[in-house]
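Quick bug: LytR/AlgR family response regulator transcription factor output formatted oddly.
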Amino acid sequence: MLTAIIVEDMKDAMELLKSDIEIHHPDIKIINTAQSVVEAAKVLRKVQPDILFLDIMLGDGTGFDVLEIFPELKSKIIFVTASDEFAIKAFKFAAIDYVLKPYAHNELADAIERAKQQIQPNKERLTILKDTLTAPDKKPDRISLHTLDKIIIVNLDDIVRCESDSNNTMFHLQDGKKVFVTKTLKYFADLLKPTGFLRIHQSHLINLQYISAFIKTDGGYLMLKNGENVPVSVRKKAEVIEILDQMHR
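Here's what came back:
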């Protein structure tokens, strides 16, 4: 039997989550609840559960305040957040799992299963999450990449390009290293587009700051500052030329 504590400031949402866990996850025993940072601190001082369901926005602060009070917290954390595109982007940049309110039963079940299997996100990933959440208009400077056996943190400025590898993505870094990530290129193209990356081909996503020149011969390709040449698809040519024009104005 696993123990759990729910930290959620909306009473209805808390009762719903509590009920869902009791009905669908009988192997989890809810030992306490809290509706604020102060309440959560009091509860967690007495006992640390196996799983902590933690809402991001609380009446007197945030879920991060709770984590800062307990830097040595051993509980697996399942973040719960309201539907918000900035919040979702932040979680993706940090490669941290979350449950989106209102959630479906299978989404909650998946989150619980992942929490049982995963080690805790480290302080650096939590910092990326917090920074991206608290400053949604600021361009993130780091991203967590989920490889097959670990999660590594990379500066966006160190990513030269990303290349599709079936349903996976290969990151090519400035120092020549490559990072293989088990997510599609489309996932990263959507996530990184606002931060200065452009999908120039079905298989290629480029960091604009590494472009050296656009060569119109041989079907059209980009020369990069590291000496690599990357093809531009026919339907992306006009967009690439327009963006390069804007950059050089």
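Actually, after a second look the formatting is fine. The chain has a mean pLDDT of 88. Closing.
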